[in-house]
Amino acid sequence: MNIIDPEQIKNTFHGSFLAEPLEIQAKLFKVKAFVFDWDGVFNNGAKDEVGSSPFNEIDSMGTNMLRFNYYLRKGQNPVTAVVSGEKNNAAFVLAKREHFHAVYYNIRNKKDSFLHLCTAHDIQPHEVAYFFDDVLDLPIAELCGLRIMISRECNPLLLDLVERYNLADYITAADGGHNGLREAIELLMGLSERYDDTIMERVRYSEHYQQYIQSRNIPVPAFYTATDSKITEQQPQ
To answer: Distance between alpha carbon 205 and the CA centroid of its chain, in Å?
Structure first.
């Protein structure tokens, strides 16, 4: 076990702490689900000719280490989901490969997706950590327990609003195009009191890690979208 002093955390990370590290840690210990926006979180928000935006292995590794960190602390896997307002093929690929529980896509009101996820997995809004970057995410940020915003220099007024309305606990220094998500994950793992264990057990491919991978790989993602204003399970075409 490796306990990192919260003050050391504050000196190590260069984003904006809108909540004190000890408060973020207390929220983290109540979390049962990690939910990710896609555009601007796993990437810089740029789209290709078919409307998809990519992910990279640095952030993907981060999501895996975050889930393993949770497994070491709780003895089970967290619920993991992507909530996007758009249809994004790269999100579907990552969710399948990494065995996320759900992807929500083409649902314009993200709050509906969030509440559906909570009901489907019998979790409370305060038990969700949400990683987000923009205006459409704020209805979820108003409800969930732990809020991590991926920063972007081009919208200082939005960042200011998020701070004034208490809609985030931490705003990253790096943006989505420069692995702001991995920064956010490092922060949470640093506050988990199991950072070294998480990394070194993966390095050694320990029995704990093998057990985690076995259980992590069981879920098959459910894909949800809006049909006639109702959220229904539907495989993306």
So the answer is: 24
Widest pairwise Cα distance in the chain: 51
User: Which among 108, 100, 112 is positioned nearest to 34, based on CA atoms?
Assistant: 100
Number of domains the chain contains: 1
Q: Mind listing the pLDDT tens digit for each residue in 5-59?
A: 878 899 999 999 999 999 999 999 999 999 999 999 999 999 887 778 999 999 9
| pLDDT for res 1 | 57
Is residue 151 one of the residues assigned to a domain? no
Looking at residue 211, its amino acid is Q
Torsion sign across C-alpha atoms 93, 94, 100, 106: negative
Residue 232 lies in a domain: no
Intervals of the chain under pLDDT 50: none
What's the CATH number where 71 sits? 3.40.50.1000
Total-model pTM: 0.96
Position 145 in a domain:
no
Residue with tokens 């840690």: 25
- Note the pLDDT of residue 7: 80
Q: Any idea how long the chain is?
A: 237
Distance CA(214)–CA(27), nearest Å, equals: 28
Structural domain boundaries, residue 75: 6-140+158-219
